[in-house]
Amino acid sequence: MSVDSAPDLSVVVPIYNEIGCVDPLVERVRGALEPTDLKWELLAVDDGSTDGTGERLDEFASADQRVRVLHFVANCGQSAGLDAGFQHARGRLVALLDADLQTYPEDLPKLIDMLESEKVDAVVGIRAERRDTGWKKFSSRFANGVRNRLTREDIQDTGCPIKVFRADAIRKVKMLTGMHRFLPTLLRMEGFTVLQVPVRHAERVAGKSKYGTWDRAFSGLRDALGVRWMQDRRMKWKVR
């Protein structure tokens, strides 16, 4: 694929201090997508890493035009990383992955096929048989329940990081800090269709989580109230 050729798919990965995951991330995305007919790019958003993550990504980018890297001048958080990735993605489809590889890049072709065959605007994962601690699984289920109650939604696993969107749909979503937890709901608010499907899950093998249980709980509650406010204040006018 030439550098001027627009890809079919952009895989957006926000990444912060994940040097141990960079090599397997790139190789597994390649392995998952090269057998398909899709032209693709891997767009990594380096969120101010200090452990060599950005430099290693640059090495991959210099050797493969399909790997692109955006470098933040300072750490800005996951929502900012996604916003930058969505705005700079060149594909007609945009996929989302976490750098920790707890969800499988190999599941992307399945999600893309379902998006096309079901003619929906987004396909989002539900982590089946989660390979996390009991406390983390409980806190995630509890948080999902609270978010759904507040936002009157039915998203089973809003924190699942593997998702595929139509680019024109995801760019209609206004990203604010913390809104990465509510992408399916925000898409529905804009009138887009969302399909939820089970995906595989693995234990983390390198690096460490960037979120604690309690800071995520309190910020998530505040953000859910903000989404509820936006739902109630959304204008629904039509011209006859």
Averaging pLDDT over every residue, what do you get?
88
Q: How many helix segments?
A: 8
User: Which class in CATH terms?
Assistant: Alpha Beta
Question: Under the CATH scheme, which architecture would be assigned?
Answer: Alpha-Beta Complex
Strand order of the largest sheet: 3-2-1-4-6-5-7
In helices, the fraction of residues equals: 40-55%
β-sheet strand percentage: 15-25%
Care to count the β-strands?
Answer: 7
- Using only C-alpha atoms, the radius of gyration works out to 17 Å
Structural class: alpha/beta
Order of helices and strands: EHEHEHEHEHEHHEH
CATH fold type: Spore Coat Polysaccharide Biosynthesis Protein SpsA, Chain A
Distance between the termini: 46 Å
Number of domains: 1
What's the shape?
Answer: globular
What composes the largest sheet? 7 strands, mixed
| Stretches with pLDDT under 50, minimum 5 residues | none
Question: CATH H-level name... which superfamily?
Answer: Spore Coat Polysaccharide Biosynthesis Protein SpsA, Chain A
Oligomer: single chain
